[in-house]
Amino acid sequence: MQVTKPGKIQDGLWMFGRYRSCVHIMKNKNGYILINGGMGYILKDVLRQMEEFGIDKRKINSAIILHTHFDHIGIIPYFKHINPDLIVYASLHAKNILKKPKAIESINTFSRMAAERMTDKEMRYKEDSVDWSTEIEIEVVVNNDIIEADQATLQVYETPGHSLCSISLYSPEYKALFPSDAGGVLSAQTYTAYGNSNYTLFQQSLEKMKDLDVKYLCSDHYGYVKGKKAGVFINEVIELAKKRRFLMEEIYLKTRNLDMAVKEATETFSDENTDSIVSSDVFEETYRQMMAHIAGELD
Predict the structure, then answer these.
(1) CATH code, domain carrying 112
(2) Computed over its alpha carbons, how large is the radius of gyration of the chain?
(3) What are the tens digits of pLDDT across the range 135-186?
(4) Total tally of structural domains belonging to the chain
(5) Range of the domain at 112
(6) 144 plus 89 within the same structural domain
(7) What is the C-alpha to C-alpha distance for residues 193 and 150, in angstroms, rounded to an integer?
(8) Phi/psi class of residue 12: alpha, beta or left (left: φ > 0; alpha: ψ in -120 to 50)?
(9) pLDDT (tens digit per residue) in 97-115
(10) How many CA atoms lie within 13 A of 116 on its CB side?
């Protein structure tokens, strides 16, 4: 069962935001952990929802970046601003990305573009409150690290492929998996497999998560999945990724021309982007990255 309505998942665990972009909050001993940063434009929604559930915004004392794509880190700067002691966790690769001025400029630019498309201007928060900067310090986590919550733990899995900086989290106490887009991208009606940076690593990362006991699959888009569907979600994405790879290989081998293959793939899979936060240009670039990797493996 897929749940898109913001609110309580279990005691000490919540999902907030909007259906296209959401974040999760988990109680820890002295406050709360923000898991994923979502899009900057959801900040007002998240603050309102937190207040409704009695969560003090100033008690967000840590945030975990699952990967650094602009639609997954948007509201973290705000919480860092109101609580300078907030600890931001991420992979080493993510830390290196977020220290590059050009990367920060790109993240902030795409965030503003998405806000223009997705929300009324009067609903937007001040842009400078959600802008990233290279001055935000990152504490690096690696595979098998444990992040302590209140009555639960979060186990870190390095899951590159969608992005080379991707990590996923699993809480055995909640039986909750937070794979971000490394576990497939959930949408309103279905899910997709995006191995943007390295499709082979993406498939290998899915294999790392397939045997986990999952009752709550907490996505960064379109809410979360619970029950039996959550338990088989990763395995279903594994099968989808295999089929998607075969189709992309088939498309490329027709001509062995990357530009032609990207054009055909973008058209073939255009239905994936009918209700997305990304522009058509970004969607095409996503397939260019995947096709380039596939072509490199075949040539």
Answers:
(1) 3.60.15.10
(2) 18
(3) 999 999 999 999 999 889 999 999 999 999 999 999 999 999 999 999 999 8
(4) 2
(5) 2-237
(6) yes
(7) 33
(8) left
(9) 999 999 999 999 988 888 7
(10) 7
